[in-house]
Amino acid sequence: MSDLEQLTQALARNLKRWRGERGFTLDSLAARAGVSRGMIIQIEQARTNPSVGTTVKLADALGVSITTLLDHDRTPTVHVVQPGQGVRMWTTGAGSSASMLLGDDRRGPVEMWTYRLEPGDGTASDPHPAGTFEMLHVTAGELTLEVAGETYAVPAGGAVSFEANLPHAYRNEGDRPMEMTMAVSIPPVRPADPRH
After folding, report:
1. What phi and psi values does residue 111 have, to the nearest 5 degrees?
2. 84 vs 131, which has greater pLDDT?
3. 70 has a pLDDT exceeding 90
4. In what order do the strands lie in the sheet with 87-91?
5. Of residues 175, 146, 174, 142, the one with CA closest to residue 157
6. Taking residues 64-74, what's their average pLDDT?
7. Contact at 8 Å (CB) between 60 and 33?
8. What's the whole-model pTM score?
9. Residue 19 DSSP SS3
10. Residue 156 vs residues 100, 126, 166: alpha-carbon distances, Å
11. Taking a C-beta distance cutoff of 8 angstroms, is the pair 157, 138 a contact?
C-alpha cells in the first residue's frame, strides 16, 4: 500500500472515529466544518483524498490536530519524527512546501509544522476557531506575515505569535528561500449535546 493510500485509509478511519466520539452526525459536522455532507461521506469511505483546507476544517471542527486525523501508527509515550518523515501537506511547483511534524490532543490539539516558501511564493489561511494561537520561528530568509490586513516582517532568527482566528497569510517577498517552524494551539471541542 502506498503512503497516500495509507493516509487516505487512516483519515477515513480516524474521521469516522472522532465524529462518533464527539457525537456529531454527518450533518452537524458538515455545518461545523463548512464542508459538504457528501465530501465527509466520501472521506469516511476512503474514496477521496481531500485538500489540506478541507482536512484543516474537519480537524478544527472536531477539535483534534491534523496529525490525529492522519495518524496510522502512533506511539503512546514518545513519538520521534526522523528528518524528512513529516506528513507533506502541500507543495508548489516553485518548491514551496509545508509539512506536519507532530501533533497531540491530550491537552487540546497542538501541532508543529515546517514551512519553506520560495521567493515570491506564499499561502493564505482561513481563520481558525476562536482561541487558536500560532507561534512562528523564522530560521532562514524573511517572512512577511499578514494578519487581518496588517503586515509584519519577521527576519531569520526572529519569532512572532498571534491569535489565528483572523484571516492570515505567509509570504516570502525576499530573494532567497524563507524557512520557519510553526506551532499551533487549538482550543478543545466539547462533544455534541445529544439533546440537540
Report:
1. -130, 150
2. 131
3. no
4. 87-91, 97-104, 110-117, 178-185, 133-140, 159-163
5. 142
6. 72
7. yes
8. 0.58
9. helix
10. 21, 25, 24
11. yes
The candidate with the shortest Cα–Cα distance to 88, out of 58, 55, 45, is 55
SS3 breakdown of the chain: % helix, strand, coil, rounded to 5? Answer: 25, 35, 40
Confidence of residue 111 (pLDDT cuts 50, 70, 90): confident
DSSP H stretches of helix in the chain? 3-22, 26-33, 37-44, 52-62, 66-70
Angstrom CA distances, 44 to 1, 50, 194, stand at 18, 11, 22
Cell matching residue 92: 508548489
Given the C-alpha cell 531569520, which residue does it identify?
Answer: 156
Let me know: does 32 contact 24? Beta carbons within 8 Å.
yes
State in Å, rounded, how far the first CA of the chain is from the last one: 40
Rounded percentage of the chain residues whose pLDDT exceeds 90: 38
Convert the pLDDT of each residue in 75-95 to its tens digit: 456 566 777 777 777 788 898
What integer pLDDT is reported at residue 190 of this predicted model? 63
User: Which residues face 145 on adjacent strands?
Assistant: 152, 170
What is d(CA 168, CA 147) in angstroms, rounded to the nearest whole number? Answer: 4
Q: Which three cell numbers stand for residue 113?
A: 509544522
Asked if residue 106 has pLDDT above 70, the reply is: no
Evaluate whether 135 touches 168 at the Cβ level (below 8 Å). no
